[in-house]
UniProtKB/TrEMBL annotation:
It is found in: Cell membrane. The keyword Ribonucleoprotein does not apply. SUPFAM superfamilies: MFS general substrate transporter. The chain crosses the membrane at residues 21-45, 57-75, 87-106, 112-134, 146-168, 174-196, 208-227, 233-252, 273-299, 311-329, 341-361, 373-393, 405-428, 448-470. PANTHER family: BLR6921 PROTEIN, MAJOR FACILITATOR SUPERFAMILY MULTIDRUG TRANSPORTER MFSC. Residues 21-474 form the Major facilitator superfamily (MFS) profile domain. It holds the Pfam family MFS_1. Keywords: Antibiotic resistance, Cell membrane, Membrane, Transmembrane, Transmembrane helix, Transport. Gene3D superfamilies: MFS general substrate transporter like domains, Multidrug resistance protein D. It is a multi-pass membrane protein. This is Disulfide bond formation protein DsbA. Signal peptide: none annotated. It comes from Streptomyces ambofaciens.
């Protein structure tokens, strides 16, 4: 395994300052993560207020996801070059301003443009966070604790966004799901400027590989656009866009092999841990994002829950994830090793999804939703910190920002892919049953069951891949 290179930034920051810096980084990340889910529950209210059509409403989400997923890798590399603190604080400021623009939007055009600006700010913020966490905590036990805290914030933030979206929309209006970011963003930015140490080794972007940056950004944005729009684009258009994205990736790879100062050092992928962990993450996150989306729809369209009730029903998941990650994950990884903890977590995720695949039309939250939700929460609380630690374990200091951007990119791609595939399968099954004369609620429930069965297969694939690919190197790294 590649040895991490010590840097001056690591040796100059005292323990109290490191943990204060972690709090600031988590606060910035939480605001970005919340925004990914908080909009979902408010979509009907936004549609009614601004007059969006069905296809047009999707762009409230897509306008954020495309720049966010497409720019993470570039932002991570630029953070390595110009300084991760500078990239983080600039992204935080941009995200906060864009949130205010979203909150005051009275027309479709302004909201979509502001959402795209949010995606840019979110990419700049999130791309460098994990690299900064790794740089702050070089000692393995402390790093495991820090990664557990960061992972808890990320995992809990996703589910918490569903609750806050429903609560704010129902109690006030949809504008407040964006305006609430203003005080949080201002406080987080002030704290970041004061607490985060500058990057002594930060250079400049002079001589950077701009053609390579254009190629990879275009490839990633086109990939995300193709995934999130697959249901509306048609088979031939989707295939053409996917082929174009692949061609851009090939051109980028060729460029990186020849450029004097490549944007992405291809040697980064020689790390079996980093490459394998990112592949596992795509599959794992696809199932978890699918659960959040399909699970919320099951509660609303099959069990008849309202917005606030749906959000409240999801609260046990972030609570369990937060408690386990903060109290047990780091110690469990330290005792049994990241590899074993990851496999145990993925096994629990498979079990939870298998139970959800039986969710009946006359189901009950207490018996049919809560138990598998808790299994998924425990599994994710075990798997995510272990997977993050494995991914970053073999990364050199000068590549930490890039590796962080890559890890976050695969999260977005995995989540987008899971949502697109599982929701399309569910809708197709439901429409087929409706065409055969099935009752609407029963047809909807069976569509969701199919989606969860496919999610089980994907989760099993993640488990097998982790067991095979990560075993040898993970064992050496313990």
């Amino acid at each position: 395994m590649t040895t991490m290179i010590e840097s001056p930034a690591r040796t100059q920051v005292g323990a109290p300052s490191r943990w204060r810096a972690l709090v600031v980084l988590c606060a910035g990340a939480l605001m970005t993560i919340l925004d990914g889910n908080i909009v979902t529950v408010a979509m009907p209210a936004i549609q009614a207020d601004l007059g969006f059509s069905g296809p047009g409403l999707a762009w409230v989400v897509n306008a954020y996801l495309i720049p966010f997923g497409g720019l993470l890798l570039l932002a991570g590399r630029l953070g390595d070059l110009v300084g991760r603190k500078r990239m983080f604080t600039t992204g935080l400021a941009l995200f906060t301003v864009a949130s205010v623009l979203c909150g005051v939007a009275t027309g479709q055009g302004l909201l979509i443009a502001a959402r795209a600006l949010q995606g840019l700010g979110g990419a700049m913020t999130m791309a460098v966070v994990l690299g900064m966490v790794v740089g702050l905590f070089p000692e393995p036990r402390e790093r495991a604790r820090a990664i557990a805290v960061f992972s808890a914030v990320g995992a809990a933030g996703g589910a918490l966004g569903t609750f806050l979206g429903g609560a704010l929309t129902e109690a006030l209006n949809w504008h407040w799901i964006f305006l609430i970011n203003l005080p949080i963003g201002v406080l987080a930015w002030l704290a970041a400027v004061r607490v985060l140490a500058p990057d002594p080794s930060a250079g400049s972007v002079r001589g950077a590989d701009y053609p390579g940056a254009a190629l990879v950004t275009g490839a990633l944005m086109l990939t995300v656009y193709t995934i999130v729009g697959a249901g509306d684009l048609g088979t031939s258009t989707t295939a053409a866009l996917a082929a174009s994205a692949l061609a851009l990736f090939v051109a980028f790879t060729v460029r990186q092999g020849r450029a004097a100062r490549p944007l992405l050092r291809l040697r980064l992928f020689r790390s079996r841990l980093l490459t394998g962990a990112n592949a596992v993450q795509v599959l794992m996150v696809a199932t978890m994002y699918g659960f959040q989306f399909i699970g919320a729809l099951y509660l609303q369209r099959v069990l008849g829950y309202g917005e606030l009730a749906t959000g409240t029903a999801f609260l046990p998941a972030p609570v369990a994830i937060g408690v386990l990650m903060l109290g047990f994950s780091a110690r469990t990884v330290g005792r049994f090793g990241a590899y074993r903890v990851l496999l145990a977590g993925l096994t629990l995720i498979v079990a939870g999804l298998a139970l959800l695949s039986r969710a009946p039309v006359d189901g009950s939250y207490v018996t049919d939703v809560l138990p598998p939700m808790l299994l998924l929460a425990v599994g994710f609380a075990a798997a995510m910190p272990a997977l993050t630690g494995l991914a970053m374990a073999g990364v050199r200091e000068e590549d930490a920002g890039l590796a962080s951007g890559l890890f976050n990119t695969t999260q977005v791609v995995g989540g987008s892919l899971g949502l697109a595939v599982l929701s399309t399968l569910a809708a197709g099954r439901t429409e087929g049953l409706l065409g055969e004369g099935a009752a609407p609620v029963a047809a909807t429930a069976e569509g969701y069951q199919l989606a969860f069965r496919v999610a089980v297969v994907v989760a099993v694939a993640a488990l097998v891949l982790a067991a095979v690919v990560l075993r040898e190197r993970a064992g050496r790294g313990r």
